Each structure stands twice: as C-alpha cells, then as structure tokens.
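Exercise 7b. Backbone tokens:
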C-alpha cells in the first residue's frame, strides 16, 4: 500500500504547485470518491432533518464542499496548468 504525504504549496516556487497538481490528478478518483461520499452523507443528514418532526433540532451545518466541488472543467484546468508548468519544473531541475 502506498501512503502519500501532503504536498504543500510554497509561495516562492511554482514547482510545489506543479507537484500538488500532479498528485491531485493521480488521486482524482479517490478525491472524487471522497467528495461524493461526504456529499451523500450530508444529503442524508439533511433528509433526516427535513423528515423529522422535532422543530427544536438544528439543521446540519452545510459543508464547504457543497459549493466547492471540482467540476470536469476544473480538472481540465488543473491538467492545463500541469502542461504549462512542466517545462519550468524541468528547467529548475536542470539548473
């Protein structure tokens, strides 16, 4: 089993963003699955809340994922950034 460490952004170099984007693309299926699972759980909580008769019960807190899901277009943009940044990463490694 492979365990990945978080790739952190570094404000002084574009290579860290490139590395993070490459990692995200490699883990896209897992990221999408996690988001879908979290949203499913949230929607189930909302449905239980709306179906309950207890008016004193608080509604579930909205997840930030609800308004921040990566679309197919977002993934495409990430791929384009990788293509743009790869030559810079290669040049940096050569230097």
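Sequence design result:
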């Amino acid at each position: 089993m492979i365990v990945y460490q978080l790739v952190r952004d570094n404000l002084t170099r574009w290579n860290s963003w490139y590395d993070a984007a490459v990692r995200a693309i490699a883990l896209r299926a897992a990221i999408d699955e996690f988001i879908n699972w979290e949203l499913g759980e949230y929607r189930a909580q909302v449905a239980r809340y709306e179906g309950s008769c207890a008016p004193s019960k608080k509604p579930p807190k909205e997840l930030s994922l609800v308004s921040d899901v990566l679309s197919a277009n977002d993934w495409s943009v990430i791929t384009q950034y990788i293509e743009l940044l790869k030559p810079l990463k290669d040049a940096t490694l050569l230097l």
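Instructor comment: The chain has one domain: 15-94. Residues 29 and 65 are 16 Å apart (CA to CA).
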